[in-house]
Amino acid sequence: MLLIYTSSITSRIKYTFDLFFPDLLGVKYNLTTNKEEFIAYTGPKINYSDHPFGREFFMYAARLLFEKGIEDQKPAVFDWEGTKAFFGTHPKYVFPFDPFAAAFYLVSRYEEYLPHIRDEHDRYDTRESLAWQKNFLDKPLVNIWAIKIKEELQKRFPELVFAQRKYKYISTIDIDNAYAFLEKGLMRTAGAYARSLVSMDLEDFAERTKVLLGAAKDPYDTFDYQLELQKNYKFKTIYFILLGEYGMNDKNVPADSKKLRSLIKSLADYSEVGIHPSYASNRNKGSFKKEVSILSKILKREVTRSRQHFLILKLPATYRQLIDLDITDDYTMGYALQVGFRASICTPFYFYDLDMEQATLLKIHPFAVMDATLKYYMKVSPADAISYIKPLIEEVKAVNGTFISLWHNESLSENRLWAGWKSVYEQMVELAAN
Known about the structure:
- This protein is an alpha/beta fold.
- The protein is 37% helix and 15% strand.
- A 5-stranded parallel β-sheet has the order 9-8-7-15-14. The chain has a 4-stranded parallel β-sheet with strand order 2-1-3-4.
- The longest helix has 17 residues, at 382-398.
- The chain is elongated.
């Protein structure tokens, strides 16, 4: 058992140490504020305070985990042992910074509670983040720091036993639009034909006609291909289904479509299925509740997994809404603008509500790469895409984390705008699943 001394035990300290020791390192620990008890203890121990008592394993404690409320921290980032660090410059200690405070700042998304710029979809702007500004968005710093702590503890306390984490790969697929042409209803189909004629897009006109007459497969119906790949490489897949009412940014087929409902049930036979809250649901809590209810009735079981459409995430409001609707696992933690690690971690963690100063039971699963990020925001070609994805996979494997990708069924269609991206997905799966 690892004993950790600290001058006071706060909810932030308990949350952060739970993250590092049981979750990331697989080692049990106890906290104490009793100096005499700590000094007398002969087993593995850490002094986490503002000064050492003797020659024990000392880790300097910054003030962040002892504070309440939200203040502008302005952490100074510096290079350290081939990576980045902040919250301290104490070169005489093994850790010249406070990795616990730094990790809490990143994982709690502290900076997203501070005044910041939001983009056209009301999302936290990636360029506001410390990771973007200091060039460590591609590093799971929290996992890296955890491993360095483990290495130092093993040197001092070889008897301390750590559980071995295993690398995992999870493919997540957002179904924003299950079919390109099918199940759109008379008015939407007529409107699409009219647009094709006005723009003289005869290819679209002909393809739509073939699909509607049953002479060709709908190009967005890539689900059999996905299942075949999943069986070949034996990886886990989670689907997130958009079931909101039709709108400017919510264009899936109607939720009452028998074909869509049949598809959802078939996907649930071999994968996990979650809700993809509509764009409109961010302004209407009732819409989100209705969408969860629809999916629950289709699946005939509770819905516990979620990912926000357009990755619209407002802290803490969005996560509180998920908790209110009994969502236990969210997969929104990632950026649309840039690939990488939004919370600088590549393993699941629990949401800490900074306004309430308490840990919650909502588990956050951060993803590292999205197809639309590469194509639309970063303007990467299919030929170059894997060069952005491979280093992220390698970073996650190096720390035995969980690599999560975000793709869409339509981006596997080879249809027009997505030509060449099916191959990118296959290359990514081959690298990530092995």
